[in-house]
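A reminder from the course coordinator: this example appears on the midterm review sheet, so study it carefully.

Given structure:
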């Protein structure tokens, strides 16, 4: 679905200059936000790594992200995890989100530069609100599971095998029609994502911007469900895992033939799951 620009696609010279300035400002702010979030993510992961990990039965180590350090309160631990989660998600998802936000700006049509910037920011906040809610749900589940693993050695010994099975399942999810449907929604035009009829331009209002950000965030979280599970079980603050998952998400979202790329990613994830299961069985 295409949206025509103001004046049927014919811009006056002044408008063309203003559009170029707007484009440069948008991408400059996006690049700065990515650089800051990436730096904070690296710093947080390094700090978490310095805290050390707890050796567990079964030959694996538990991340400090799920544990309360001496002198910490659980609200402080939760706030720290959520802060790191949000920053990490901005760094991981922004490269694939920026093109979608730019398409939203183009679809909005005539709007003042200040208002367009505000609407774009609102759409982005709506998108990351979904990921923040996901982090808020993941933390108590992770803490509860970690507590059970520390109290039940038999459960802890089963973790390496369970991780392999989860990774294998995440890879298999990449081949499903469910994955393909949500990936198509993530790559769709803003109007199609919002299920609006074909219009010359999207409404330039806060409700539409917020709704677009939320819908895109929901489709993205569904689309990335398998890869997010890989991140959570393989190393939520492991920079290597983060880099691989980020690359996989970006490629399947932006490269031509997204569904084909998702299947290629699936082959790699399935292979990793098989290796993890074989290793767990060998250690067992």
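Designed residues:
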């Amino acid at each position: 679905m295409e949206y025509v620009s103001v004046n049927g696609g014919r811009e006056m010279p002044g408008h063309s200059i203003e559009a170029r300035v707007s484009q440069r400002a948008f991408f400059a702010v996006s690049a700065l936000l990515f650089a800051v979030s990436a730096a904070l993510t690296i710093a947080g992961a390094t700090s978490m790594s310095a805290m050390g990990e707890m050796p567990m039965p079964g030959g694996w180590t538990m991340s400090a992200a799920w544990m309360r350090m001496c002198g910490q309160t659980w609200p402080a631990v939760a706030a720290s995890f959520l802060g790191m989660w949000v920053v990490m998600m901005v760094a991981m998802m922004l490269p694939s989100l920026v093109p979608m936000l730019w398409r939203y700006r183009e679809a909005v049509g005539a709007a003042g530069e200040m208002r367009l910037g505000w609407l774009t920011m609102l759409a982005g906040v709506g998108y990351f609100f979904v990921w923040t809610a996901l982090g808020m749900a993941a933390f108590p589940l992770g803490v509860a599971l970690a507590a059970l693993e520390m109290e039940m050695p038999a459960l802890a010994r089963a973790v390496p095998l369970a991780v392999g099975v989860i990774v294998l399942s995440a890879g298999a999810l990449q081949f499903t029609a469910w994955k393909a449907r949500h990936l198509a929604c993530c790559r769709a035009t803003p109007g199609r994502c919002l299920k609006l009829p074909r219009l010359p331009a999207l409404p330039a209002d806060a409700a539409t911007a917020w709704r677009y950000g939320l819908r895109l965030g929901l489709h993205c979280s569904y689309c990335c469900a398998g890869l997010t599970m890989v991140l959570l079980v393989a190393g939520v603050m492991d920079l290597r895992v983060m880099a691989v998952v980020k690359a996989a998400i970006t490629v399947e979202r932006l490269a031509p033939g997204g569904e084909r790329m998702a299947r290629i990613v699936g082959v790699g994830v399935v292979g990793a799951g098989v290796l993890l299961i074989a290793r767990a069985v060998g250690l067992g």
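Confidence is low (pLDDT under 50) at residues 1-14. The longest strand covers residues 54-56.
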